[in-house]
Amino acid sequence: MIAFLIIGGGIAGLSAGARLSEHGHVVVLEGEDALGYHTSGRSAALFEKGYGPPSVKTLNAASEAYLRSNGYLSPRGLMLIAGHDQRDAFLQDQADLRLSEISVEEAILRVPILNPQTVGFAAASSVAFDIDTDRMMQDFARVIRANDGLVLTRQKVKSITKVGHWFVEAAEPFEAKALVNAAGAWVDEIAMMAGVTPIGIEPRRRSVARVPAPAGHDVTGWPLMLGAGEGWYAKPDAGKLIVSPCEADPTFPHDAYADDMVLAEGLARYEAMVTEPVTRVEANWAGLRSFAPDGTLVLGPDPAEPTFIWSAAQGGYGFQTAPAASQLVADLTTGARSELEAASVSTLRPERLRG
């Protein structure tokens, strides 16, 4: 019998599956044709240790050594950009991200298209890194298979019942001792199928556009540029730029697509800070970043049903937290002692959401 049946083939499910495969037979079910089809495959993929609420920063710090030692990180850098009227937002972001303020002139030396007339403040950090998300997901899948587990696609879950063990109907039937709910924006739907109280997940759309590199510029070494107040970001990607309005609009679980109006507004905020306008959009897409009511991850067994395990509410922090978050899921599931402080663990367990 399957020890751990993982529902969801994104980074949350694959990383949890890899950790749990050391403790029993794991099968991962992904409903789409490919792993990471939804949010995991649409990530901006940046590791910045200071990004996120306190519990996320704890997971970031605990994940860094794993990400480095496995070669998933490559230098990118981060630059915060603010207009003359955005001083308060700039100072808040600078403090949260622990960035060093630099002159506008220095910022322009690093990113020549910045507009000296409109950029009022800048700050930067060299310790921000691109994450090789595809290799990371494939490596976790490889660990599962190496431990005699299975990673299956086209396995959309239709029903879940429990009679002693869990019975799951997908493209074929499965029986398991424990379920791991790593279904992203769909985690509450999976919980309700299983007769487990939902956590109140809120999917929020984030749109992205790919645009050509500004004429005559090699963007390869540019940092990720973040507008103050998280009003936009621009990041080099395969010789081009990806630009996002950084929206977090609540929506419902679905195959997300970019909102053209929101995207246009975000591109306008980016263009206001640079000298080179966007001449065309080559592609656009959107992902759903899923949040619990308190904005942090939900990890570990459900207090009312210990064989129903949450790996949920990554909220856009999935890749940067995956090594530590997945280890915590395994520790809480198997009863092992976590290397994280107890106070941090309590902010991540599902018990906190049960009143």
From TrEMBL:
Residues 5-332 form the FAD dependent oxidoreductase domain. Keywords: Oxidoreductase. GO terms for molecular function: oxidoreductase activity. It comes from the Bacteria. GO terms for cellular component: cytoplasm. Pfam families: DAO. PANTHER family: FAD-DEPENDENT OXIDOREDUCTASE DOMAIN-CONTAINING PROTEIN 1 (PTHR13847:SF287), SARCOSINE DEHYDROGENASE-RELATED (PTHR13847). This is Hydroxyglutarate oxidase. It comes from Ruegeria atlantica.
